[in-house]
Amino acid sequence: MRTLYTWLFRAAIPLILLRLWWRGRVQPEYRQRWRERIGRVPVRASRAPLIWVHSVSVGETLAAVPVIEQLAARHPHWQWLVTTTTPTGSERVRAALQPLLGGRLLHYYLPYDLPECLTPFLDALRPDMLVIIETELWPNLLATCAERNIPTLLANARLSEKSARGYGRFPRLTRPMLDNLSRVVAQYSADAQRFVELGLPPERVVASGNIKFDLHIDLGLESEAQALTHQWRGATGRKVWLAASTHAGEEEVILDAFAQLRKKFADLLLVLVPRHPQRFDSVARLCRDRGYKLLRRSDGGPPRPEHQILLGDTMGELLRFYGACDTAFVGGSLVPVGGHNMIEPAAWGVPVVCGPHLHNFATVAELLRGAGGMAVVENAEELATQIAEWLGNDSRRHRVGERGRAVAAENSGALQRLLGEIEGLAEAL
């Protein structure tokens, strides 16, 4: 079955390259560094142990940073290879890890899942261990690592019912692929059980919690968020609603809700942060076409009283944005994407509202909703009603926020358990 998969992948390469070129119209970075995607990288000269961490894009990279940070401090003789698949993930690696690791860091795009791409990549770099963040499973990648006796660990792994059904349709491909995993550290017992049902030997999986709960908000970050708070609220102390990680089809709903909210909160500031940088310009146009006075974060300077929307078109600032708002909507949830990380606003004590599509964070959403720290809405009217309820009642908003903060605190600890699993697998290095 893997042979058929490989030939189908080869047949699709022209379309994949065309898609990269097409996306490069908006993000020129997609037309750069193509040699990395076919596994052509410089030969590594060092013989030090090399830990390979694969984090697909921004979200996985942010989750990987504290893992790498703590392991790098404990094991200063280790070198690090971090691969991503997107330019935004690549930018996050350079911004967050290059200052930390310096010459100990190698960073490339993940090669395509073909033997002719993976073989030269592994020959050149000789990694000693592979850690995959969350669920990015490639049959040839795992098979090639197994053939070379490179242990592989799936970290902070999640597997929704929908994804499990998809993998279950191809058991002759899925079972051998899972058998090539050395260890799976799943987020929750339900995730672990789905891996076992798909064919992973049960002795290779453990549930440790979600490492995204181990969010450290230090004094520096608090100070930056406080400075933003003063900038955004201005002399009048205006309320701030943050709509974060939004996708196509969500901004229209958010702007409809914003129009309703402005009838009650005339000076309300909407901070709108699209998920993907290539959509910044189109979202800015949408806001202006609706008649709103918009300031882009990249323009510099604080919003003035006449600005109604601040477009978050910079990278790496969302966490401090959460600390500067009154309430937050987390996107990818009004459309069937599966939701994004609602732990971050909860950790700040900010009330969270999402749409109904939350399968990527199902357990987290259940915990927050059960504690009364999060609300789920279906449409613009419900969204406006919920935000208005919180903005119009400070004591209730604070209570809801504190419930979310308590959930985040109570569920921390997964990071240390994951570090122990990685060190146990790497003890021979």
From TrEMBL:
**Pathway(s) annotated for this protein in UniProt:** Bacterial outer membrane biogenesis; LPS core biosynthesis
Q: What function does the entry list?
A: Involved in lipopolysaccharide (LPS) biosynthesis. Catalyzes the transfer of 3-deoxy-D-manno-octulosonate (Kdo) residue(s) from CMP-Kdo to lipid IV(A), the tetraacyldisaccharide-1,4'-bisphosphate precursor of lipid A.
Q: How does it sit in the membrane?
A: Single-pass membrane protein
Q: Which organism is it from?
A: Microbulbifer marinus
Active site as annotated: E60
Name it. Answer: 3-deoxy-D-manno-octulosonic acid transferase
Q: Where is this site: Transition state stabilizer?
A: E134, K212
Source domain of life: Bacteria
Report domain 3-deoxy-D-manno-octulosonic-acid transferase N-terminal positions.
32-214
Instruction: Quickly give the catalysed reaction.
Output: lipid IVA (E. coli) + CMP-3-deoxy-beta-D-manno-octulosonate = alpha-Kdo-(2->6)-lipid IVA (E. coli) + CMP + H(+)
